[in-house]
Amino acid sequence: MLSLSRVLSFDMVSKTTIKHHNENKEDIDIFINEYLSKNINQGDDASRWTFVLNYSKNLPINVVDKIIHLYGNDKIVNDLVEFYFEIFKHMEFVFEKHINMIEQENDETIKRNLVSLILFNSITYSSFLF
């Protein structure tokens, strides 16, 4: 297991510095520690996304809300909206049900998608110094 007693990361998207300590671990620290322990190739986006999605779908909703509160910002929300609309660009046929897709998403699903993006950004745009 990696020791994160002296790890510092800077998320370039949210412009947030995250200090990782072994004592009094924060939710993002726990996530990054689990990610690093899996030894996933940093260039393997599919494996990283799979890990992030599986991790975020099992988080309690209060942790989801906390991560959004601490690390969410307008840039990340706009990126998520862009990802939703990017889906439409790659559809061959668009029906009314597709246009209403975002409205059909419940708040919890949208929050989990936002947290997935935050967590993915935290491992993509951060440098880990040991």
Description:
The structure is a single chain. The protein is globular, with a radius of gyration of 16 Å. Helices cover 60% and strands 8% of the residues. It has helices spanning 27-38, 45-57, 61-71, 74-89, 96-99, 101-104, 107-124; strands at residues 7-11, 16-20. The chain is mainly alpha-helical. It has one domain (7-124). The longest helix is centred in the C-terminal third of the chain and has 18 residues, at 107-124. The chain has a two-stranded antiparallel ribbon. Helix 2 crosses helix 7 (107-124). Mean pLDDT is 77; it is low at 1-6.
**Whole-Å distance between the termini?**
13 Å
Regarding quaternary structure, what we see is: single chain
Please state the average pLDDT score: 77
Order of helices and strands: EEHHHHHHH
> What spatial order of strands do you see in the largest sheet?
1-2
* Main beta-sheet strand count, sense and barrel state: 2 strands, antiparallel
Range of strand content: 5-15%
Number of strands: 2
Low-pLDDT parts are 1-6
| Rounded Rg | 16 Å
What number of structural domains do the residues give?
A: 1
Overall geometry comes to globular
Structural class: mainly alpha
The tally of helices reads 7
Percentage of helical residues? 55-70%
